[in-house]
């Protein structure tokens, strides 16, 4: 049992949970849970830098935090302009393609642009008067800084605890074995371009179909595509894609079970915090299982910001997840065919 716990990122789970719990509780105290999305996306800064030495974590957390704030800011700008579809489409393509190269170049974990895309689309969908744009961006930036400090605070904890905890196999102080570098070859790597093309085509197809059929909040179909498509240079495995599909659909079912009795805001906040904790413990070990918690967290945040009828929410999300997953699977199969043809050509 001890070894199983040690294999999970308990330390990063607590850190990520605290990063989202504190700002949401502050917003609850001041009666501004309508701003929950901006605080949560800023808190996503704490999702990065897992199990990395602090000299390397400094880079990972900083670049990820900046990328998140850029995505949030672009979403807010689109919202202020009335969410014009053409502008949102252009920016979505920029974020998903640039995010793919960015995550690969800096060897981030999670290694997909999921959170960047999600931040852009949700912030763009929230009606925003021009006067509120900078305060909302500032809120996200403030939470991102708080999350950055929280993420780096482990250095002090380890300095205080010394190496004894690591030598005795303490669960909370997992060895910092991950050592990401900076890959300067991404622009010349055909596999990275293939993944960027998969994401670009996928978000256009899934989003277009969702809009054509009038599904509410078509961005969930787009997010589902990005969740299903594997990271650049990873194997295009159908089984892994199916794990992600079932994890996402299972997360929607969990959300329905949680929200069916219209719980008070504090309970929804608790759900977000708990899901953040378990998602971060699992995301580096089994991404499909992590989506079982990432999905309720995302939907609960949306519910806090703008409550919607549960029936419509669940039906739309299931349909959009299936749509996005189907597009993602088709693109995975296409990528496998491309890779096989290249192998034969070589």
Automatic annotation (TrEMBL):
Location(s), subcellular: Membrane
Keyword Membrane (UniProt): yes
Spans traversing the lipid bilayer: 12-29, 35-51, 63-81, 87-106, 113-131, 137-157, 201-229, 249-275, 287-306, 318-338
Coiled-coil segments on the chain, per record: none
Keywords, alphabetical: Membrane, Transmembrane, Transmembrane helix
Superkingdom in the source lineage: Bacteria
Every Integral membrane bound transporter domain range: 206-330
Predominant location: membrane
GO cellular component: membrane
Membrane topology: Multi-pass membrane protein
Protein known as: Putative membrane protein YccC
Organism: Leifsonia shinshuensis
